[in-house]
Amino acid sequence: MLGYVTRRLGVAALLAFGVATLTFALLWWAPGDSRGALLLSGFGDPVTSTASAEVEGPLQSYADWVGRLFRGDLGYSETQNRPVGRVLGDALPHTLALSSVGLLLAALLGVGTGVLQAARAGSRLDRALAVLTVVLYSAPSFWVGLLLIRLFVGGPFDRGPFSALQMSGVGPPGGAVGWIDYVPYLVLPALTLGLVLGAGIARFTRANMVEILEQEYIRAARGRGLGELRVLFRHALRAALIPLISLLGVYLPMLLTGAVFVETVFERTGVGWEMVRAIQRQDIPVVAGGALLFGFVTVVANLVADLLYGWADPRIGDAQRG
After folding, report:
1. Is residue 236 part of a domain?
2. Is 0.85 topped by the overall pTM?
3. Element (H, E) at 76
């Protein structure tokens, strides 16, 4: 198992290096004056940085840029007059809160719906949920967000406890007293991500559960007189959850990219919101920093998924040794 972990760490390091290289290359050869902005650090002059980049060339400039990355220097945002690390650092907690709650909702809704469909496979309920999950899985996240705003803010469900839900911002204008003050601002954005990603999890869970419920050991469990709920959740679902771990490396990056659209729709401060503003203002250092952050999160997510899958199914590590 140690050899498997070491190999996965080595692959992750190479992928992270590739992400940094690709980000630099795309911005270096992009049209416009992106070279000087990419290398801008501290209170430097973009014109001077561009001239220096032209003299040094791409290889030396790339080496200087990577050296700054290892020191934690992502550059300086001229439009916000502060370091890129501080811009993204202030926005990251809001994106992590949105992504974490969205992933939790996606797992609960997706696994619950998939198990229900598998238990009632072929029924009208199964077919209706299949249509619903296809629609949600195919729909853009910003469209689902706009639909939720229409339903819960000034719409038919804007009553009772739902009337407290907010459609923009991350917290009360005067500042929050406790974490509960952030909940009304988090529910609709997180539900948007949860519905879109949960639809994919539901379809994956249903397919696995239907196949597992036809296995011999499930029939044997039923033959021993075990209740249907125990068979579903104690035996079938446990086996179906192992392949779901492999989706972790795919869905975590999707959460971040989905957060870009969701934060824009709900006017919610976060890394996605900052990147959209940076693109509009042509703030290259912030764009580069956000791209690196998303790329590194993707690499880490795939690494975690690989390690969890190897832990959950020791045959993976044995196959790697073989």
Report:
1. yes
2. no
3. strand 76-77
